[in-house]
Design goal:
With about 120 residues, the protein is mainly β. It is about 0% helix and about 45% strand. It has strands spanning about 5-10, 15-20, 30-35, 45-50, 70-75, 85-90, 95-100. A hairpin with a 6-residue loop joins strand 3 (about 30-35) and strand 4 (about 45-50). The two termini are about 35 Å apart.
C-alpha cells in the first residue's frame, strides 16, 4: 500500500511538516517510530500500520482499495529527539511536525557519479 505524503520545510520556523493521507484509519491503527538507519546512519521517522477491509472477505465484483501492512519513512535531522515531534490525526490525515534545531551549513556542490 502506498501512503501519499507532502513534506514541507519552513525555514523561518525551522520546522518540517509531513502530512500523510491515511483514509479510513484511526490513530490506534498506526505507530510512529524514530530510529537510526543501520546502513546510512541517517535519523528516520517511520509511520507503520495496517489497513483492513471494511467488508468481509469473499468474492468482490470490484475491489480497487488496497489493504494490509504499510510503512512510510522520512529523513529527519540527526539530533532529533522524540520530544521534538508532534503528531496529530484528523479526517484521515496524519500531520507530523518536527522541530529541526540549528540549520546545517550549506555543503559543497553535488558531485556527479559516472555510470559505467
Amino acid at each position: 500500500m502506498l501512503i501519499r505524503a507532502d513534506v514541507h520545510f519552513n525555514t523561518s520556523a525551522n520546522c518540517m511538516t509531513a502530512i500523510f493521507e491515511l483514509p479510513g484509519l484511526k490513530k490506534h491503527d498506526l505507530a510512529i517510530k524514530l530510529h537510526m538507519c543501520p546502513y546510512s546512519h541517517v535519523q528516520q521517522l517511520t509511520v507503520v500500520g495496517r489497513s483492513r477491509p471494511a467488508l468481509p472477505e469473499g468474492v468482490y465484483t470490484v475491489q480497487e482499495r488496497k489493504f494490509g501492512n504499510f510503512y512510510r519513512t522520512v529523513v529527519v535531522p540527526l539530533d532529533t529527539k522524540p520530544e521534538d515531534i508532534t503528531a496529530k490525526m484528523e479526517d484521515g490525515l496524519l500531520t507530523l511536525k518536527v522541530l529541526c534545531g540549528t540549520i546545517a551549513q550549506e555543503r559543497e556542490e553535488p558531485q556527479d557519479i559516472t555510470i559505467q
